[in-house]
Please model this.
Amino acid sequence: MTPTRTDADTPRTSASGHDLTPLTGDARERLAAALTPEERRVLLHQGTERPFCGGLLADKGPGAYHCRLCGLPLFRAAAKFESGTGWPSFYQPFDPEHVAVHRDASHGMVRDEVVCGRCGGHLGHVFEDGPRPTGLRYCMNSASLKFVAEGDARGQG
Ligand SMILES: [Zn+2]
Model:
């Protein structure tokens, strides 16, 4: 008996109208092949880039930050704030369903790891010392994100 595959045949759509159907292992590998070694290290192996080194720290103007692996929009530029940590920081996700949070007890700390709600790629961690209105600080790696300017259709879908 071969086990029934359930990961790819359960279509899901978020409240904001985006496809959340999990990627098959094959699709994930195809997308991962296009990543740089640093992006792979962060997204697929829970790496953390060095502070003040990422490409998305500075404000990029209106738009959204998408998952570098599967393209799902994760954070709006409007929710970005300067945290002073050296990593791009946001106070709320694009859609609550677009990110998932897991308890992470590695490195001798207990933290809340944030992963992409669709592909499971590692994004960063969330802390409870952010600004109003949420009080949350999503501390992200630039390597996990891709900025798409408002009105720019490339990179959508
Ligand atoms: Zn993703």
User: Anything to note?
Assistant: The chain is about 10% helix and 25% strand.
